[in-house]
């Protein structure tokens, strides 16, 4: 009757192994291989200048991937992130043209992001609409609002101190822009939130079985609402970063970037069906996509091909886990059980003193 | 068993069929023979393996061992289509028709007759539907959409489908559970006329009056194994019940006397429109109050609304004198309530998640520090409750899906009992778990009541209700129709209240 839970002397090792579970191993491996190969075979890849450029080029994607990770884990999706980024950027442009200082404009942009994210949240949770449909709609809506604000003009008169300030590296660490360091710290925060907090644990429950989570007292709709609001807020922050990073505001900025964000999240081992995923995996996915693109660009390969490569990687990342699961299931499939004793029929019922199985 | 060799081999027979799901042995060497022109009853407790048997006959499950014989020939059904081709039709308790297709289209779905131009021959479809309905004595328009048909009519559409397929074996899985008396009578007329035209029928029900009035032979199963098969005239209800349960009912459930204390739960005038109406009751510390009734009477819904998982329209719920806000499970938990839900796979557990994560899901707050979880505390808590409930498991990090049904139920119990509730709602406490664990759960509930827990138990198993409950509230169509004390509650009084009937002499 004593439960057999004493076999944990090698517990730390097995726990470490399960922490880097099969789902994240491929993307981490692929990232490592890509970095090593690119450093060896691609000229100018492993330079300070390129490292800083590479990291900054994925900064906005990394930023938006953080709340996206949480949202996809709960079984939802937010496709309006790139449009929110553009709306935030356009808001910044209009405010700057109107003479609002950047320090003030920045907060207004974030507020706009929080508001449009909250609208997504309301539509998904209160109206009970599928997030895929809602955010395809708001993707068009927010992009449209950006056009309303800026038309096809561009605002490019941002002060040089801000524009170059974003690109400044951390003192003493060449090749590491301070913005990237800030994003990395934010990623750590998200990782703690997701993997070590009460809220994070409930996100997995929602994604795996929202009904059971509800029965256990998890506020499913409340949680999802705030995730969408957070996604809007962070995307707006990415919009501010993007604007200063490139020194321009345009309504068509970051067009289609949401697909790269989703691709990085799925590539990082988050299940599109919800309930599975880690921040480490997603950050590796972001870096893998970014460094692949960067390396191919350095090799002079056209952007059309880059698009194709991104698409293929996305498909592979979705197919691979389910194919692996199927393989595993086949390997584990039990053989036919031995035929029962024919005299088993009138077997007396077991005494209720214990359980046999 | 063979008394007289029938002239032709039976259209369907099972010989020593076994089927396991993980460590749960759903069928153990079960044998069954359905004869043409006979209505055969299959009775057994919930979880005795009836559903698995039906699914095996329907080709959904493949037996691990044993044989299925069609007309005396060994057959292996790879898929439901094979069973259909062999002339087997299954009528489920709640048929699933396509609501937007017409009745005739539903009957011929997937096998629509074609005209010479390879288009669908609607006229022929309609005509053959009308023929089948005429044979069944049904007056439903073949052209009307299936949406809005009553469950009884939907079942008849399914039977008509079976007729047009020339099914020779008709399996009816608790067909009357959701029917009114008149509807059930009509179904029985149809069943008898099918029998008289040579169809073999398998009738599954736990309503004994129906079984005895309708069926020619009765097979009893228990724990997935064959117990007996006799012609109906040689049996009576008591014998069948004894065989189903396998021992005297009174010795089954050890309900101890408990000191009844203060009032813990007061429900007043609770109504959710279209689901339940004006439900009022109270439960005191140390009491076990059972909500009995047929499936669909609204028992689970009342419990869910009281706990706040569903909202209610009017009425109040008070726990220890504190009124609970509508639709807020967290508030109910804070007030000392716990709910072990009806469906542990869908509502009770996150199947992909580990034992420790599931069993601590209700008190992550208390187990965390500064909002951060402490894995060690979670593991220790899971082990402590695993030991207390004699949970059989490998490691607390194993997913709960690897456990047997009984052990999964123990994880759900751990999840809720570890919150130290004052009030426990428990919905179908022993559904689909093995006999040994069942007794453990009953002993546990009895002990908890003895320690002063107020328990509201929803159960479809009458013996469980009668043995465990201090009081029985019987629901019928969303209302409480009877409140019976332990002494007044018998199988008959509960059944009459549950079916909304007055006691009458046996038909």
Short account of what is shown:
By secondary structure, chain A is mostly helical. Chain A has 13 helices and 2 strands. Chain B is 33% helix and 25% strand.
Descriptive notes:
Chain B: Residues 12-248, 258-502 form the ABC transporter domain. Chain B: This is Rhamnose transport system ATP-binding protein. Chain B: GO terms for molecular function: ATP binding. Chain B: Keywords: ATP-binding, Cell membrane, Membrane, Nucleotide-binding, Repeat, Sugar transport, Translocase, Transport. Chain B: Pfam families: ABC_tran (PF00005). The complex is a heterodimer of chains A (357) and B (507). Chain A is mainly α and 357 residues long. Chain A has a single domain, classed as ABC transporter involved in vitamin B12 uptake, BtuC (Orthogonal Bundle). Chain A contains 13 helices and two strands; from the N terminus they run H-H-H-H-H-H-E-H-H-H-H-E-H-H-H. In chain A, helix 2 runs parallel beside helix 12. The model of chain A is unreliable at 1-9 and 333-357 (pLDDT under 50). With 507 residues, chain B is of the alpha/beta class. Chain B folds into three domains: 12-97 and 149-246, P-loop containing nucleotide triphosphate hydrolases (Rossmann fold, 3-Layer(aba) Sandwich), CATH 3.40.50; 251-336 and 421-498, P-loop containing nucleotide triphosphate hydrolases (Rossmann fold); 356-419, no CATH class. Helix content of chain B is 33%, strand content 25%. Chain B has helices at 50-57, 80-85, 103-107, 122-136, 151-164, 181-196, 208-214, 237-245, 299-307, 329-334, 344-348, 355-359, 364-367, 375-388, 405-417, 435-450, 462-468, 491-498, and strands spanning 12-21, 24-34, 38-43, 65-70, 73-75, 88-91, 169-173, 200-204, 217-222, 225-231, 263-272, 276-284, 288-293, 314-319, 322-323, 337-340, 368-369, 372-373, 423-427, 454-458, 471-476, 479-485. In chain B, strands 6-7-8-3-9-10 form a six-stranded mixed β-sheet, with helices on both faces. The model of chain B has no long low-confidence stretch (mean pLDDT 87). Chains A and B meet through helix 9 of A and strand 1, strand 2, strand 10, helix 10 and helix 11 of B.
């Amino acid at each position: 009757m004593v439960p057999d839970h004493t076999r944990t002397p090698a517990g730390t090792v097995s726990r470490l192994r399960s922490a880097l579970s099969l789902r994240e191993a491929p993307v981490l491996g692929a990232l490592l291989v890509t970095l090593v190969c690119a450093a060896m075979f691609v000229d100018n890849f492993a330079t300070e200048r390129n490292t800083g450029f590479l990291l900054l080029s994925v900064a906005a994607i990394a930023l938006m991937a953080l709340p996206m990770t949480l949202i996809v884990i709960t079984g939802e999706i937010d496709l309006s992130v790139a449009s929110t980024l553009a709306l935030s950027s356009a808001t910044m442009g209009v405010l700057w043209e109107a003479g609002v200082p950047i320090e003030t404009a920045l907060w207004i942009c974030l507020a706009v992001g929080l508001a449009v994210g909250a609208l997504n949240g309301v539509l998904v949770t209160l109206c009970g609409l599928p997030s895929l449909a809602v955010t395809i709609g708001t993707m068009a809506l927010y992009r449209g609002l950006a056009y309303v604000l800026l038309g096809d003009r561009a605002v490019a008169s941002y002060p040089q101190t801000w524009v170059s300030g974003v690109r400044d590296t951390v003192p003493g660490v060449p090749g590491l822009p301070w913005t990237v360091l800030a994003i990395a710290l934010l990623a750590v925060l998200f990782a703690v939130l997701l993997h070590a907090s009460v809220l994070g644990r409930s996100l997995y429950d929602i994604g795996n079985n929202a009904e059971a989570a509800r029965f256990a007292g998890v506020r499913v709709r409340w949680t999802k609402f705030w995730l969408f609001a957070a996604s809007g807020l962070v995307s707006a922050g990415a919009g501010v970063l993007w604007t200063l990073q490139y020194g321009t505001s345009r309504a068509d900025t970051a067009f289609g970037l949401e697909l790269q964000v989703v691709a990085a999240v799925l590539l990082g081992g988050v299940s599109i069906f919800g309930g599975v995923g880690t921040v480490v995996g997603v950050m590796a996915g972001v870096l893998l996509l970014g460094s692949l693109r960067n390396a191919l660009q350095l090799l002079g390969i056209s952007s059309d091909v880059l698009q194709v490569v991104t698409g293929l990687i996305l498909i592979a990342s979705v197919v691979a886990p389910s194919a692996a699961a199927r393989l595993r299931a086949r390997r584990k499939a039990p053989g036919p059980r031995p035929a029962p004793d024919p005299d088993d029929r009138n077997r007396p019922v077991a005494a209720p003193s214990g359980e046999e199985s | 068993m063979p008394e007289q060799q029938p002239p032709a081999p039976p259209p369907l027979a099972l010989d020593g069929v076994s089927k396991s799901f993980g460590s749960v042995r759903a069928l153990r060497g079960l044998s069954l023979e359905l004869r043409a022109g006979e209505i055969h009853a299959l009775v057994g407790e919930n979880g005795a393996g009836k559903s698995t048997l039906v699914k095996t006959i329907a080709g959904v499950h493949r037996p691990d061992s044993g044989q299925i014989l069609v007309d005396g020939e060994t057959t292996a059904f790879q898929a439901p289509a094979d069973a259909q081709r062999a002339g087997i039709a299954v009528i489920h308790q709640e048929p699933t028709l396509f609501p937007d297709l017409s009745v005739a289209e539903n009957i011929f779905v997937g096998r629509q007759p074609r005209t010479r131009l390879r288009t669908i021959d609607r006229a022929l479809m309609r005509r053959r539907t009308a023929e089948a309905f005429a044979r069944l004595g049904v007056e439903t328009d073949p052209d009307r959409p299936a949406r809005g048909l009553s469950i009884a009519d939907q079942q008849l559409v399914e039977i008509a489908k079976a007729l047009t397929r020339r099914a020779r074996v008709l399996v009816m899985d608790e067909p009357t559970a959701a029917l009114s008396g008149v509807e059930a009578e009509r179904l029985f007329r149809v069943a008898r006329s099918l029998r008289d035209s040579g169809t073999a029928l398998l009738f599954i029900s736990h309503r004994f009056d129906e079984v005895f009035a309708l069926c020619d032979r009765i097979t009893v199963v228990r724990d997935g194994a064959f117990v007996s098969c006799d012609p109906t005239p040689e049996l009576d209800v008591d014998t069948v019940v004894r065989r189903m349960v396998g021992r005297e009912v009174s010795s089954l459930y050890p309900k101890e006397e408990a000191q009844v204390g203060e009032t813990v739960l007061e429900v007043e005038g609770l109504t959710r429109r279209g689901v339940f109406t004006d439900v009022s009751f109270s439960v005191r510390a140390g009491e076990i109050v059972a909500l009995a009734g047929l499936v669909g009477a609204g028992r689970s819904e009342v419990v869910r609304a009281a706990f706040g998982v569903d909202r209610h329209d009017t009425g109040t719920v008070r726990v220890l004198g504190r009124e609970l806000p509508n639709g807020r499970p967290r508030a109910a938990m804070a007030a000392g309530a716990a709910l072990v839900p009806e469906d542990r796979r869908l509502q009770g557990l996150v199947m992909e998640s580990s034992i420790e994560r599931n069993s601590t899901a209700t008190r992550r707050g208390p187990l965390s520090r500064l909002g951060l979880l402490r894995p060690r505390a979670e593991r220790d808590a899971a082990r402590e409750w695993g030991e207390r409930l004699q949970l059989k498991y490998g490691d607390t990090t194993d997913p709960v899906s690897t456990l047997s049904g009984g052990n999964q139920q123990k994880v759900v119990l751990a999840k809720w009992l570890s919150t130290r509730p004052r009030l426990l709602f428990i919905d179908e406490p022993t559904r689909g778990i093995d006999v040994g664990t069942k007794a453990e759960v009953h002993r546990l509930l009895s002990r908890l009541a003895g320690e002063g827990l107020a328990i509201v138990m929803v159960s479809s198993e009458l013996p469980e209700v009668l043995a465990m409950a201090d009081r029985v509230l019987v629901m019928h169509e969303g209302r409480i129709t009877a409140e019976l004390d332990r002494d007044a509650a018998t199988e008959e009084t509960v059944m009459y209240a549950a079916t909304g009937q007055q006691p009458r002499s046996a038909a």
